[in-house]
Amino acid sequence: MNEVKAEQVLASGQVIRLVHGDITEERVDAIVNAANSHLTHGGGVAAAIVRKGGVVIQRESDEWVRQHGPVPTGSAVITSAGALPCRAVIHAVGPIWRGGSEDEEEKLRSAALSSFTLAAERGFTSLALPAISAGVFGFPADRCAEILLVAARDFLHEHPESSLREIRFVLFDPPTLGAFLSAFRRLFEPSGESRA
Q: Could you tell me the pTM of the whole model?
């Protein structure tokens, strides 16, 4: 059972939440998949999404790549959600961590912002994301948390009238959840608005 661990309500009424649990169980308009450029969903979050959502997700992903070529790092594309309890899956291609020398932080921020933009363009109100790039791509969880949370806050501040009213970060393993909670407290608790 997924459990909310922290939330921040912005002045616009938009919400950023941290959830401990399985992203494939989230009842939101769309979930984000931490994808690779070829959209081959073979491991980690991607494999779990296809396992639960069905082969239609992989089939649509293959078709997208066939028509458009590999998805550039830092961008996102959308497919249907198959049997998942959401309406769509947004496949965000985060960077592989190479020590920070190849603009990985900016590419991760771009992957998050691309996901938020795509969700807003579709009129979605709620979006759930994993810790993009922090798994098999090796991005340090503490930096990943800070970059993704700041990207969410900045996007919502800049688009208070957007259809997107809630961004959830859904973390499965306790160490990654811990990294996100620490970053969340640093970003939001000084304002006194956060409930954790």
A: 0.94
